Amino acid sequence: MHFHTKNIHFPNKEKAKEVSKTKPIYQTSAFTFTDFEDMEDYYNGEKSYLYTRMGNPNSDDLGKGVAELEGAEAGVASASGLSAILAGVLAVAKTGDHIIATQDLYGGTWSLFSSDLQDFGIEVSFVDMEDREAIEAAVKENTVLLYSESITNPLLRVEDIEGLAQIASANNLKLMIDNTFATPYLIRPLESGADIVAHSATKYIGGHSDVTAGVVTGSAELMAKAKAKVGMLGSNIGPFDAWLGVRGLKTLSIRMQKQCENAQALAKALDGLEGISKVYYPQAASAQGNGAVVTIELDTAADIITFSKNLGWIKVVPTLAGLETSVTYPVATSHRPLPEELREKLGVTKQMIRISVGIEDERDIIAAFEEALKETLHKANV
Ligand SMILES: *Cc1c(COP(=O)(O)O)cnc(C)c1O
Questions:
Q1: What is the dihedral of CA 153, 157, 162, 166, to 10 degrees?
Q2: What is the number of domains present in the chain?
Q3: Which domain holds residue 178?
Q4: Is 162 inside any structural domain?
Q5: Which positions carry N6-(pyridoxal phosphate)lysine (predicted)?
Q6: Are 88 and 218 in contact (CB under 8 A)?
Q7: What distances in angstroms separate CA 56 from CA 50, 60, 341, one per listed residue?
Q8: Is residue 1 in a domain?
Q9: How far is 7 from 281, CA to CA, in rounded Å?
Q10: Ligand 1 center to residue 207 CA distance, Å?
């Protein structure tokens, strides 16, 4: 099957088993049994569900759906992207182990790695993932995991996953990739040698800004470990949220296709405009498109607050990936936890705006940004 077909047909493959065309919501905390012997079958592995914290048909559906699109053996859904990342990390690393992570991380992951994991006794080194020598120099005897993002935030650097997979296998490390920005529609890291892929399903997988969710995918062996962590940390996703995640996932490919086209057009239209000093947009992220996020840097003549006040119908949010075009201010939101020196070193500046491009007509999107820019420059000149 091609991606668009696979995307819409993954759930409810069994044709006759259920009467309902969509998966029912198993809004239950537990499952019942005929007797104690029957209940024992759960522990024997003959039955799948016992208690929702340990597993539920709706959360399994979300995990399986993303796993299928990523080309993974298994997937585990959880209550958020961060909990999925944590479950994936803990499937590989324990106290006393060491992780090498990219320095240009999503801020929440940066906090988790630089503070909470250290509290668990898991050490993390942050390196420039484009510097192969720096990665190799950071490898220690207790290093178990290499961690990066397929398309980074907000600078939209496209990671060389195959190159990282070579380093990982040469050093006997597992490779984990946060594929939130790319989604499997654009990039499938497991096909390039990664071992684990994590998603904030709050973003493109869910796609409608109505659910907080996460998914981690990989081999059946690693995902069994990740699933046990989600159960024991109590970071399972509720049945309705999982159902919303699946409902969103069904239209992933068609949303991404449109959002990528709009983003490509917007990046082209903004490039070279007066008031914009730089447009960040990937050139060759994948054959299907280059992502739905465009980052711009205003020049110092254009006041960033004035710009944000003149965006008309474009929403100002702390996040990305909804159906509607929105903007965020990375230094104040996603990258707030990063130390200022690191932000400066990375080039995440105070004049930078990250645009999450929606499914509207590209002409309206472009016009709204041109108008905001015109107003901002006009106000600067009076
Ligand atoms: C939002 C985000 C996360 C965290 O996901 P939550 O669902 O908010 O927990 C992780 N990685 C990236 C790249 C993100 O954009």
A1: -80
A2: 2
A3: 11-251
A4: yes
A5: 203
A6: yes
A7: 8, 6, 44
A8: no
A9: 26
A10: 13
**pLDDT < 70: residue spans in the chain:** 11-18
Q: Are residues 235 and 325 in the same domain?
A: no
Q: Does residue 226 share a domain with residue 109?
A: yes
Verify whether residue 350 is a known catalytic residue.
no
**Which protein residues are within 6 Å of ligand 1, measured from CB?**
80-82, 106, 108-109, 149, 153, 178, 180-181, 200, 202-203, 212, 214
Question: 17: which DSSP letter?
Answer: S
Tens of pLDDT, residues 199-215:
999 999 999 999 999 99
Substitution site in 180, 187, 295, 336 for ligand 1 pocket (most atoms within 8 Å of beta carbon): 180
For 153, residues 6+ apart whose C-beta sits below 8 A from its C-beta are 104, 106, 181, 293, 330, 334, 335, 354
Q: Is 216 a member of any domain?
A: yes
Specify whether 185 is located in the same domain as 324.
no
**Quick one: pLDDT at residue 15?**
66
Same domain, 117 and 223: yes
Q: What is the pLDDT of residue 21?
A: 83
Q: Based on the fold, state whether residues 232 and 276 are members of the same structural domain.
A: no
